[in-house]
Structure to design on (224 residues):
């Protein structure tokens, strides 16, 4: 009996150690829109470089998982960014950048802190200077219609994105490709999309913007 008890304690301890050592896993959907084309040819990219693409809206919706020990399943966080130059260009430095974070209003105070921490980790240098954190009702739907490139974000009255699949009419020069990469690390399933609408109406970034009808969005998923 004593040996059985000891064996049970050893197994319980081993299970606890394995559980403690197991990393947290968090997965979900992602949507991004910029103020320049990301799916484009070099002629169009060169025409926009330095003149646009310094603003973006990024959004994450957690399907399941925890961050810093806090369950974030079903919650979302959105970021609006204003950089010093065209984001993603490999020949210039777009930093410093300023950002505003919008946290799901359904989150508890503890979840809000975890969402901010998660976004800052995912955004890296992009979110070094967070000038404002707002809360709003957030709806992020990826694959919200039959088109694979269809997605919709509504973050209260602060930010919104709606996308559609590129069509043959969006291949203007016939030499388009994914010219810029997404602004955060994603799974390999991401695709470019066309923005039907893309706007930020919040405070903190020195102005607002609206940038519809551009080949400027990415839809994908994340796993951390």
């Amino acid at each position: 009996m004593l040996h059985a008890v000891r064996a049970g304690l050893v197994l319980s301890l081993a299970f606890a150690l394995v559980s403690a050592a197991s990393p947290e896993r968090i997965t979900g959907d992602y949507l991004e829109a910029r103020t320049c084309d990301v799916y484009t040819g070099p002629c169009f990219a060169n025409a926009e470089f330095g003149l646009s693409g310094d603003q973006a809206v990024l959004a994450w919706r957690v399907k399941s998982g925890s961050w810093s020990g806090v369950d974030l399943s079903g919650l979302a966080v959105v970021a609006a960014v204003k950089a010093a130059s065209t984001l993603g260009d490999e020949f210039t430095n777009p930093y410093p950048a300023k950002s505003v974070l919008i946290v799901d209003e359904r989150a508890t105070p503890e979840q809000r802190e975890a969402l901010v921490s998660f976004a800052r980790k995912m955004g890296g240098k992009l979110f070094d200077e967070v000038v404002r954190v707002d809360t709003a009702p957030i709806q992020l739907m990826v694959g919200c219609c039959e088109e694979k490139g269809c997605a919709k974000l509504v973050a209260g009255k602060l930010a919104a994105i709606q996308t559609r699949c590129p069509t043959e009419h969006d291949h203007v020069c016939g030499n388009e490709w994914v010219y810029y990469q997404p602004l955060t690390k994603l799974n390999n399933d991401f695709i470019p999309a066309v923005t039907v609408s893309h706007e930020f109406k919040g405070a903190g970034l020195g102005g607002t913007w609206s940038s519809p009808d551009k080949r400027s969005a990415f839809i994908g998923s994340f796993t951390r």
